[in-house]
Amino acid sequence: MLQLSELKIAVIGLGYVGLPLAVEFGKKKPVVGFDIHQKRIDELRSGQDHTLEVSPEELKKAEYLQFSADLDTLKSCNFFIVTVPTPIDEFKQPDLTPLIKASQSIAQVLKAGDVVVYESTVYPGATEESCIPVLEQVSGLKFNQDFFAGYSPERINPGDKLHRVTNILKITSGSTPEVADFVDQVYNLIIEAGTHKAASIKVAEAAKVIENTQRDVNIALINELAVIFNKIGIDTEAVLKAAGTKWNFLPFRPGLVGGHCIGVDPYYLTHKAQAIGYHPEIILAGRRLNDAMGAYVVTQLVKGMIKKKIQVEGAKVLVLGLSFKENCPDIRNTKIIDIVHELQEYHIQADVYDPWVDAAEAEHEYNIIPVQQLEQGQYDAVILAVAHDQFKAMGAAEIRALGKAEHILYDLKYVLDQSESDIRL
Q: Which end of the chain is less crowded, N or C, counting CB atoms within 10 A of the terminal residue's CB?
């Protein structure tokens, strides 16, 4: 069995999850941070991280960390951590392609005694049913005899400078009791908050996928309540503040549900449920409701414009924010794009402004070219879609100055007081 003193780690995938992990391990043990994109490797070697998850100072502290896009560099490693994306396809089905390709690559350098740990979000059973067979087939080694596996779900929250990889409690698991103990010991080298050793790999997989499913369903409930309260004519935030005075009322808020976790993970669980013959009701209902919120926002906006006798067709609307959450450059699965597309359905010109987002990435991912400067008096409506600190600092007067003499200000994120906007979710 592998010993901690022999440990040489490879982190496969250097995005929002992999890089912080590689940096922390790189302060204690030899680590190869591997990514298939040479541009990413060059960036990190230069001491920069465009995701802003790791500062140049933090990168310098990882003295045992090297970056590489060359698979041969991994031959000396014996503990592989897989942190590649697990997205959904256009039919909202799990896309395990990155996971399978990562497994194929690792299998080419896998040796007897090595351990492979997956962190990517999957449905219960995916590690042992989809990944392990690839490792066996390509490497020619036997699972739980020649090599071993574990699962330790990521809990990274992009843009969050308070909850970091080291102070978030970590779930660990292994393919045998001995391996589970070893995987737990490895993560305890860097996880200050401690670990929770799950009973099995499947339990750890299931724990991860329900964390975000629970949040998704709760937000769906609040979104539905917001629709009801809007029809009644009462302010949703005022209701939630009043209800929040009870000690056990959960502090969820309505809004768009995007990003790489909450809007994606439930589909992994429902896929597995349907595969075993069960049709999930509540989970899929919550997904449908949350996925429809972009269209609902635009419907509210158009109604507001009509009431003010603002010409809808040919109107100009400014959307403040494109990232999936505040103070973060991450645009993966952002639901702001739903608003933009829905506005275009009404033949409305939608300009997007986001000081956090890389314009080239926005154009590549969504065919959107964000405006680089804000001009006053240009817009028939302004949607405050993401609560970036920059937008909060602007205040109502500065934001309203972007609109024409007659315009609509829609505060989607409760950044402003109720009296300062025309519409709130």
A: N
Query: 261 catalytic, yes or no?
Result: yes
Catalytic, out of 77, 131, 261, 328: 261
Do 293 and 224 meet the contact criterion of CB atoms below 8 Å apart? Answer: no
34 by DSSP, 3-state: which? strand
Give the count of beta carbons closer than 10 Å to the beta carbon of residue 36: 16
For residue 129, give every residue at least 6 positions away whose Cβ sits within 8 Å of its Cβ, in sequence order, or none: none
Strand order in the sheet with 423-424: 349-353, 316-320, 379-384, 403-411, 423-424
CA-to-CA distance for 114 and 143, rounded, in angstroms? 10
Is the pTM value of this prediction over 0.85? yes
Instruction: Let me know: does 136 contact 166? Beta carbons within 8 Å.
Output: no
For residues 237 and 424, what is the distance between their CA atoms, to the nearest angstrom?
9
Strand boundaries in 4-94, DSSP class E: 9-12, 31-34, 65-68, 79-82
Burial class (CB in 10 A: 0-12, 13-18, 19+), 218: middle
Name every residue whose Cβ is closer than 8 Å to that of residue 110 and which is 6 or more positions away in sequence: 80, 116, 135, 139, 141, 147
254 contacts 425 by C-beta, under 8 angstroms: yes
What's the rounded Cα separation, in Å, for the pair 44 and 28? 19
Per-residue pLDDT of the chain (425 residues; tens, 9 = 90+): 889 999 999 999 999 999 999 999 999 999 999 999 999 999 999 999 999 999 999 999 999 999 999 999 999 999 999 999 999 998 999 999 999 999 999 999 999 999 999 999 999 999 999 999 999 999 999 999 999 999 999 988 888 788 889 999 999 999 999 999 999 999 999 999 999 999 999 999 999 999 999 999 999 999 999 999 999 999 999 999 999 999 999 999 999 998 878 889 999 999 999 999 999 999 999 999 999 999 999 999 999 999 999 999 999 999 999 999 999 999 999 999 999 999 999 999 999 999 999 999 999 999 999 999 999 999 999 999 999 999 999 999 999 999 999 999 999 999 999 999 999 99
SS3 breakdown of the chain: % helix, strand, coil, rounded to 5? 40, 15, 45
Q: Which helix (H) or strand (E) holds 404?
A: strand 403-411
Helix (H) or strand (E) holding 220: helix 201-232
Q: Strand order in 9-12's β-sheet? A: 65-68, 31-34, 9-12, 79-82, 115-118, 148-151
How far apart CA 290 and CA 140 sit, in angstroms, is 45
Contact between residue 347 and residue 277 where contact means Cβ atoms under 8 Å apart: no
